[in-house]
TrEMBL record, chain B:
It comes from the Bacteria. Part of the phosphoribosylformylglycinamidine synthase complex involved in the purines biosynthetic pathway. Catalyzes the ATP-dependent conversion of formylglycinamide ribonucleotide (FGAR) and glutamine to yield formylglycinamidine ribonucleotide (FGAM) and glutamate. The FGAM synthase complex is composed of three subunits. PurQ produces an ammonia molecule by converting glutamine to glutamate. PurL transfers the ammonia molecule to FGAR to form FGAM in an ATP-dependent manner. This is Phosphoribosylformylglycinamidine synthase subunit PurS. Pathway: Purine metabolism; IMP biosynthesis via de novo pathway; 5-amino-1-(5-phospho-D-ribosyl)imidazole from N(2)-formyl-N(1)-(5-phospho-D-ribosyl)glycinamide: step 1/2.
Length: 233, 82
């Protein structure tokens, strides 16, 4: 399965996302923000970083990049799209997922291995998790505070669109401890922490068993491959 | 050059950590007469030609669609620079 990873000016984690796709058994396809071509991919990842230096608002200029016209069209037609960190901010700015992002309430950049609970395993990117599963993946952001008005929060809570929630501590002041959300259909998911940094022994978060052995992020990428195969069956 | 000024502020109910940090610094420096600070953005749009009702309308459109995010911010003014 071909999974596209889009590089924007200022993207940082596209190589890690490509490697995560490969380790999950997929074929990563490097896509370019300035092109109008998805090159036949069946899923898309918007990677982390600081596209356009986070100027204007994090993710806002990238959300208007040329390739985003094709991404938005494909997302509305049901193609799985995952936005990680800056990619989540792009999805929110493009109105593909609800809410928006503000500066962390602590005022500083935060980097930590973060515990999350999987609140909905019925999205294109979470089917390999158990409902309610707790996972640990790295988090690193400055503008990670998820914000939405009360009506929107109620709607997404009622619809099961809160996909991930922070557990133990809330690192950035996100409302309702929300770490990730999906669109109504569940094919588009955005989250602040970075699953692509927890996919390979020696490079993931520490676990009780061994240092840097955490692989909880891998299931995002195996999920999309599995759910895409099942959707064709 | 004719210029249109657009001002955007974080919504009143949205936490503004930048403003809070500045307010804290002011208090530390003894400026106790200011109880709060909120930080917004000012955009200066240079217009090719005179400012007309049409260019102001175009400025309103981009102010609402691109320069601000209505989930977290309000456009508080759009006017020709004097």
């Amino acid at each position: 399965m071909r999974v596209g990873v889009i590089t924007f000016p200022g993207s940082l984690d596209e190589r890690d996302a490509q490697r995560a796709v490969k380790l999950a058994g997929g074929t990563p396809v490097a896509l370019w923000h300035g092109a109008h071509d998805l090159e036949g991919v069946e899923a898309i990842i918007l990677p982390g970083g600081f596209s356009y230096g986070d100027y204007l608002r994090a993710g806002s200029i990238a959300s208007h990049a040329p390739i985003m016209a094709e991404v938005i069209d494909a997302a509305h037609k049901g193609m799985p799209v995952l936005g990680i960190c800056n990619g989540f901010q792009m999805l929110a700015e493009a109105r593909l997922v609800p809410g928006a992002h503000g500066r962390n309430d602590c005022g500083t950049f935060v980097r930590r291995d973060q515990k999350l609970i999987v609140e909905n395993n019925n999205t294109a990117w979470t089917t390999d998790f158990a409902q309610g599963e707790e996972i640990i993946i790295p988090l690193k952001n400055a503008d990670g505070r998820f914000v939405a008005n009360a009506d929107t929060i109620k709607r997404i809570e009622d619809n099961g669109q809160v996909t991930f929630r922070y557990v133990g501590m809330n690192p950035n002041g996100s409302l309702d401890d929300i770490a990730g959300v999906s669109n109504e259909a569940g094919n588009v998911v955005g989250l602040m922490p970075h699953p692509e940094h927890a996919v390979e022994p020696g490079f993931g978060p520490d676990t009780a068993q061994a240092m840097r052995s955490g692989l909880d992020g891998l299931k995002f990428f195996t999920s999309v491959i599995q759910s895409t195969i099942l959707s064709k069956a | 050059m004719p210029t249109i000024v657009v001002e955007v502020m974080p919504k009143a109910e949205i936490l503004d950590p930048q403003g809070k940090a500045v307010a804290g610094a002011l208090t530390r420096l003894g400026h106790n007469q200011f109880s709060g600070v909120r930080i917004g953005k000012r955009f200066e749009l240079t217009v090719d030609g005179p400012v007309t009702a049409e260019t102001l309308a175009a400025a309103k459109t981009i102010a609402e669609d691109i320069l601000s995010n209505s989930v977290i911010e309000d456009v508080v003014s759009i006017s020709e620079a004097k």
